[in-house]
Design brief:
Elements (H helix, E strand, L loop, with lengths): L3 E6 L3 H13 L3 E7 L2 H10 L3 E6 L2 E2 L2 E2 H5 L5 E6 L4 H10 L3 E4 L4 H17 L7 H13 L13 H8 L7 E2 H8 L3 H13 L4 E5 L7 E5 L3
Parallel strand pairs: 1-2, 1-3, 3-6, 6-7
Antiparallel strand pairs: 4-5, 8-10, 9-10
Helix pairs in contact: 5-6, 8-9
Protein name: Transcriptional regulatory protein
Organism: Gordonia jacobaea
Main location: cytoplasm
């Protein structure tokens, strides 16, 4: 499956940058563009017709992000500070897949994006059945992929990785790689699967230089 393109629309460039870092850190996603207004968002959508998802603020300099929803030919998450119930209902009626109220932490956005990836996969066939529809809707509600077998605990490697977190301390992928004796790429792949299933949480760690690193921890 190709990478899912995300347009980020927020008039605060720092928030837009943070959201872009989270999107970029997730396997299977890429940022197509960022925009700070409705006008810029429309221009970005015209320039990037391969956008799959818009992460859309409500309060923008030239209007409400909710007004843009009716124009979209792709999916949308609302990510805004608007808490008026009528606005939330209006956004959901207009087609928003989810509504995130700021401030929310990195893990919550990552979890919702992982759910969206499963939603897309569940609805990727030309013809689908009720099981696929229910799986897609469940993924969007919970932010995780549905468990198909009761008590499914994943692969042996994933169980071994989880065992490394028993002390409750967060770890980077390279630390997990060194502990269990697999390559960093293999560790990252299994860590992403554990985040997708809700058994680990992922957030971003910002150092003094360079790109932020993904750090993993147990829920709770």
């Amino acid at each position: 499956m190709r990478q899912l393109g995300v347009l980020i629309v927020d008039d605060d460039f720092r928030v837009a940058g943070l959201h872009a870092a989270i999107v970029t850190a997730l396997r299977g996603f890429r940022v197509t563009a960022t925009a700070g207004s409705l006008t810029q968002a429309r221009e970005a959508l015209a320039s990037h017709p391969d956008t799959d998802l818009v992460l859309l603020d409500v309060h923008l300099p030239d209007g409400s992000g909710i007004d843009l929803l009716a124009e979209l030919e792709c999916d949308c998450f609302i990510a805004g500070a608007e808490t008026d119930a009528a606005a939330v209902r209006r956004a959901l009626r207009a087609g928003a897949l989810t509504y995130l109220i700021k401030p929310f932490d990195d893990t919550e956005l990552a979890r919702r994006l992982a759910g969206y990836a499963h939603y897309r996969r569940a609805l990727s066939a030309e013809h689908i059945d009720q099981v696929a529809v229910d799986a897609a809707l469940s993924a969007m509600r919970t932010g995780t992929r549905p468990v198909t077998h009761a008590g499914d605990s994943g692969s042996h490697t994933e169980r071994t990785i989880l065992d490394q977190f028993t002390a409750g301390e967060p770890m980077f992928a390279d630390e997990v790689s060194a502990r269990i004796g697999v390559s960093p790429a293999t560790a990252r792949r299994h860590l992403a699967a554990l985040v997708d299933s809700g058994r680990l949480l992922m957030s971003l760690h910002y150092g003094s230089t360079g790109r932020p690193r993904q750090v993993y921890r147990l829920p709770g």
